[in-house]
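Lab meeting notes turned into a lecture example. A postdoc, R.K., suggested we walk through two folding results consecutively so the class can see how the record format repeats. The first protein's sequence and structure tokens come next.
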Amino acid sequence: MAHVFLYISPLDIVAARKYLAVATNQRNVWTNALRIVCHSNGMFLPSFPMETMALKALEHAALAPYRFPCLEMNDDNWIPPLSTRLLRDIRPDFGHFKGLFLVPGGRFLVTRTSSSTSIWDLGASSYSFISLGSLASLNGSYDMFDCLPTQDGTGLLLFLGLSVDEAAPHPKYSEISVYRIYPASLSPNFDQLACLKGVEEEELLHLRCISCTQDLVVFMFNNAFVVFWDFKIDAVAYGPDFDHDPEGESLSCYSEVLIFNKLVLLFESDGFCLLRIPDLIERDETVSLSENWSNAGGHRLIPIMDFRHPFRHSYSDHDIYIPSRSWLPDTLRNQLFWVVARESDSDSLICNTYTALHVSQLGLNCVPAATSSLKTQELITCSGTPELRICGGEASLSFYGGEDLQWGDHPQADPLRFGDFGIMILSWEVLDQPFDWSERSDEEVSEYAIKCIWKDIGAGNRSSHLASSSCPASGRLCLLKKDSYEIHVYDYLSPFTKASNVL
């Protein structure tokens, strides 16, 4: 009978416990359930040392993505954490934290200071002790563009830019590097896989936006070029702007770039365009980047197709966000991406979901197609860069809500009142099939929920002084008050008993 439970969800296993207590309490049943949950929620599998986890710990981890969405706000209209731990670094030359990224799964945390990038083990449980030292550190003033799992799912790829002037309003980098690390190994270390840099001192990379996959990096350079770099074979290509403006500013209307199913999308305030990835040639490390791009011949970028956002209202150029697709579930039938924006005329938050529609025209395998569009009735101050994760079959978008948050007639409690500041979670159902937009009106509202998971009463909008990263599927939030020497680690799900902790 136990083999039947290898193919059903953790909720169904729990439901069957009343009649099949022995079969539903076998270790291999919950080990397999946790593996399925990791794949279906885009979680980093090595976050869970399954060989040494107790049975109750396996069950707790497998059920966590279904428990977090069920948490209810208290009388003060927020969800307080059940436990709080502090992460500190005792190295004398360490300095203060400047950024962080919680790897989906909730165990491993990447941090950045002005002198190093480090990775930490927070443990699989809220009982776990956080070491005073990191697992591994990389010296240098790096910014992290993205963090992806390796193709085999056992390691991490970090895409880093070596910053030249952190105080500059538009950062410039002397190099872009790709590092690999296996944080669950006995002796983790950062291995550099590739590096793109100039050979001349004044040749700096001024990046406006960047997108990364497990073999390709695409970024906009100085508003004048789109650069394509296959870091596995160290090959490059570039394209000047569509009409080649000599002043190099005609790409300035595009605020985001995204690699999607072997195509590239460039986003602006009212839509996006679709580009093919050009042929790449091997890069010559002995000459400058501009010479490499000249040798590549240059490709005149001609959009294959243009797309408008489903809602007919316009968005502010500075309020378009494209959440990373790095940790999407393996179980999705189609690829997805999201466009998050604040509507300029109403301050409502818009979340458009797109999937890959398979076609045979124009020599393409697929084109983006909208599957759903969510428009909040609340007027939301969404500051910072929203972070999107999958949790229990729902998309969970975390963002900062500030002092000018106003609430409409949506039937739920008001998490923030005037003058408060908090971290919000907006969640809605994930759909990966195209939607017939001719049957939908702008006024129609998709079902969603907004919850506040951290609150600072009377603080106003302090998003510029905070950095946070969350993993709803494990019920964990990491919060950094910028220029601080410590990071708060909050856990929201009641843990298994201490006796059942990781061995």
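The second example is placed directly after the first for contrast:
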Amino acid sequence: MTKRKDGLEGIDDGALKKKITSEKSDGRPWSELPMDVLGDISRKLNLVDHLAFGGVCWSWRMSALASERDVIASQPPLVVLPSISVDKVLSLLLWLSSGYLVFQDGKGKDELWLINPITRHELKFPTPPTNISHATITSPTTASDSSIVALSRDFVHLLFYRPSDDKWTIYKTPEPKCFYADIIVFKGQVYVLTCNGKIWNLRLQSDASLTLFAVCDNPVRCSTILRRFSFQYCPNVFLVASDDELMMVNFRVFTRPKIFKVDLETRKGVVTNSLGDKALFIADMSRALISNPTKWGGRSNCIYALDYYLDPIYVLSLEGKILQTLQDTGSSRCRKCTFYSLYWYFTNKCFHVDFLNEN
């Protein structure tokens, strides 16, 4: 036993380093572990650990990619709570798009900043000419070449910016006495919903155009609801999509929602009374139609409602009745965060951009 440089008794630093080096040289490199062993390990990790696992080396990355779909499918949507008080707010969280959080400063003077909190990939777009309510990128798989589409905060303007543009383009509402309600990207196309239940197709080629795509049968009259984080009255109708279905939803908590399934061939929206093996997740700034939630212990053919004014998460039937209440979301603890609201983060979207260098 000798005295180490740090003053403690034991093996001296030089001997300890030599011992560790010797032990390493006797074992098999971690990068050469069998792929079946790596696969068993990666499938048991949570989402964040799975991402870190894939960043160790090339062989671990290949194993993580192979098990990625299974890992993502086993993860429920996350409830994200603000953790800062109003006097410390530097940026305004506007929306969630393809796994990205969309930020802008509260005065609307800075560029839009998009960040994927899981992969840490970032995107930036020029400052829009007007305050916007929410935005979506059009090509999450090639985000660096993506366009961005947004709605103005008063819902009377549609804005978009393409990589080849030097400024934003603005469209007024396509019909009088009408306002925009929502935007979504589905199967490579941008769809825009107006408050009268009409769905429009926005084409972003060199000659951009907005044309009527589909009309929902007998849509209920669109009203507005107060969005907490921006103090704006927003439409209570919106678009949601899974991998294979596009729907329009008219929703208020504890009332029977009206759900329209959009047929892409007939270009009509027809009322449906069943979501099948899917569940609808709704929050102020994020919503999605999630397939097979039973994989992670959830319910199908129901609605998960997350609201700033509700402490528990309510699981509702399609008749608007309470099926289940989940844990306290902590909303009562974050009501001092005036500019923020609760939202869902959908883990199945967070890997849409693979920014890691494979070399």
